[in-house]
């Protein structure tokens, strides 16, 4: 849970612990104020809450990824773009997004898997 004093922010914060004598692949830590790394974390986030100026672009990337690599059923929320594989694995009806409480959800069953 996010600390209440930061609740107005709509961003995630991470704490990274790096070893001095370790070579991190695709990471640039030459400037101590910035950590640069190649990751899909920002391109294909787990979900999006609130307004995002590139949400339609992120939606396209998320859809491309989920259609390409998903092998088992998952719940997809059309509002926040949440994908939940665990909830879809259960035997109960999925009718509400666990992130944004939207009813605009569906269970995808890729490749006809049961």
Write the layout of secondary structure elements.
Blueprint (H helix, E strand, L loop, with lengths): L26 E2 L7 E2 L17 H15 L4 E4 L5 E2 H5 L15 E4 L6
Antiparallel strand pairs: 1-2, 3-4, 3-5
What is the count of DSSP helices, taking H or I runs of 4+ residues?
2
β-strand number: 5
Major sheet description: 3 strands, antiparallel
Average pLDDT reading:
79
- CA-based shape: globular
Widest β-sheet, arrangement of strands: 4-3-5
User: Percentage of helical residues?
Assistant: 10-25%
Please give the domain count.
Answer: 1
Which stretches are low in confidence, meaning pLDDT under 50 for 5 or more residues running? none
Task: Name the beta content range.
Answer: 5-15%
Q: Label the structural class.
A: alpha+beta
What gap, in angstroms, lies between the N and C termini? 34 Å
How would you describe the oligomerization state of the chains in this entry? single chain
- The succession of helices and strands, N to C, reads EEHEEHE
Output the radius of gyration. Answer: 17 Å
Structural summary, described in words:
The protein is an alpha+beta fold and about 110 residues long. Helices cover about 20% and strands about 10% of the residues. It has helices at about 55-70, 85-90; strands spanning about 25-30, 35, 75, 85, 105-110. The two termini are about 35 Å apart.
Keywords:
114 residues, alpha+beta, three-stranded antiparallel beta sheet, 2 helices, 5 strands, 18% helix, 12% strand
Concise account of the structure shown:
By secondary structure, the chain is of the alpha+beta class. Helices cover 18% and strands 12% of the residues. The mean pLDDT is 79.
């Amino acid at each position: 849970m996010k600390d209440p004093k930061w609740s107005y922010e709509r961003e995630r914060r991470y704490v990274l612990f790096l070893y001095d004598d370790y070579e991190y692949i695709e990471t640039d830590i030459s400037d101590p104020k910035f950590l640069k790394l190649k990751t899909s974390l920002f391109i294909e986030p787990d979900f999006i809450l609130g307004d995002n100026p590139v949400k339609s672009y992120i939606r396209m990337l998320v859809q491309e990824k989920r259609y390409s690599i998903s092998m088992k059923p998952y719940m997809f929320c059309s509002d926040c773009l949440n994908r939940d594989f665990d909830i879809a694995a259960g035997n109960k009806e999925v009718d509400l997004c666990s992130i944004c409480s939207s009813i605009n959800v569906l269970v995808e069953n890729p490749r006809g898997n049961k």
